[in-house]
Each structure stands twice: as C-alpha cells, then as structure tokens.
Amino acid sequence: MDIRALVNQAIEARKKAYTPYSNFQVGAAVLTKNNHVFCGCNIENASFGLTNCAERTAIFKAVSEGDQEIEAIVVVGDTEGPISPCGACRQVMAEFCDQDTKVILANLNGAIKETTIAELLPGFFSSKDLTK
Ligand SMILES: O=c1ccn([C@H]2C[C@H](O)[C@@H](CO)O2)c(=O)[nH]1
Ligand SMILES: [Zn+2]
Fold first, then answer.
1. What is the 3-state secondary structure (H, E, C) of the chain?
2. Residue % of the chain over a pLDDT of 90
C-alpha cells in the first residue's frame, strides 16, 4: 500500500469540502481490503450538528457500495500536527476498522501519524456489547 498516494487522494478530496461555517476543510480516503479507494470531505449544514466529517463521508461511501472491510483510512486537514478525529468519527471507525486497520492522520505539511482505533478510542462500544 502506498500511503503517500492515499494521503494525496485525501488532499484532493479535501478540495471538495463544503465548509461555509467553519472554513476548515478536511479530506479523507478509505482503502478497502478489495483494493478500492473511497474519498470524502466534510459537509457542513446551517444546523451545525448535522455536519458530516470527512472520514465519516468516506467510510459511508465505502459501506454504501458494499465494500466495508477497511485496510487503511487517511484523514488530512490544515492542522499544525496530524489532524485528530472527533469522538463521533472515532466511534464510526470502531464499527468498521479492525485492530490491524491503519488509521493515518496527516496534515498538509507532510506530518503523518499512523495509529489504530484501539489507540484512538480505547474501550469503544461495539456490537459485542449488545449481547452478553
Ligand atoms: O477529523 C476531523 C475534524 C474536523 N472535521 C470537520 C468538521 C467541521 O466541518 C470542521 C470543523 O470542526 O472540520 C472533519 O471533517 N474531520
Ligand atoms: Zn468527526
């Protein structure tokens, strides 16, 4: 897997962000185990809470195309260091990432942090918790 190429696809997707309220653009790219790439951007709303973050857009695109097994996900923003996903996105990642899924957090200046969902959201709620 070429991480740099995936970061570049996220950077391209970021250009499509709809951000009239925050003016903060984020891009994401999901590489599935089937070797397909789904890109996403953040999409804001006048009702602020309805905003969809870039990484959720990309994950939902993959899942809605029936391609839900994720090999790697990149998130990129114009942040000082690697971007830090919000709590809602971490929980959504937990649904579709396994312990080996690469979660790659980046910025526009080449900073890259590779992490995992276990590190980002320890103790996340999962389907296993629905039955005992
Ligand atoms: O990882 C992140 C962090 C923030 N945002 C979006 C949400 C909102 O549109 C804007 C400012 O929070 O950035 C993302 O898309 N992903
Ligand atoms: Zn988010």
1. CCHHHHHHHHHHHHCCCECCCCCCCEEEEEEECCCCEEEEECECCCCHHHCECHHHHHHHHHHHCCCCCEEEEEEEECCCCCCCCCHHHHHHHHHHCCCCCEEEEEECCCCEEEECHHHHCCCCCCHHHHCC
2. 98
- The interface pTM score, or ipTM, of the predicted complex is 0.99
Cα of 38 vs centre of ligand 1, distance in Å, is 18
CATH number where 49 lies = 3.40.140.10
- CB within 6 Å of ligand 1 — which residues? 19, 22, 24, 26, 42, 44, 51, 53-55, 75, 83, 85-86, 89
Domain span at 15: 3-130
**Active-site residue numbers?**
55
**Which pLDDT value is given to residue 132?**
80
Residue with CA at minimum distance from ligand 1 atom 3: 85
Q: Identify the band that residue 1 occupies on the pLDDT scale cut at 50, 70 and 90.
A: confident
Mean pLDDT, to the nearest integer, of 107-125? 98
